[in-house]
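Researcher: Structure for this, please.
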Amino acid sequence: MAQILEALLGSGVLIPAIWLSLGFVTVWLLLSAKRAVPLTRKEAETLWKFHKQKTKCRAESWQEIVRRNKIIGFECECGYKHVQKKHIITINA
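Model: Predicted structure, token format:
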């Protein structure tokens, strides 16, 4: 094992491979990270109604999910939770 590591260090391949891997991980984290997006009460209610239609849910009410005095989603009586999220970095092609 030590001979393999020594050969990799001596060939000059290991350090660039580590930096390349670190770069890929950083890009992946930035592109997969999401943040909660505020909704209006009307939007949350519309999303809840769509949930009811789509799943044939029989719930009669829903609760707002609030963070920092802003509605970010809803929780249905049936236990379904929806939090509106958006990618931190968006690439438009």
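Researcher: Any notable elements?
Model: The chain has a mean pLDDT of 88. Residues 35-93 form one domain.
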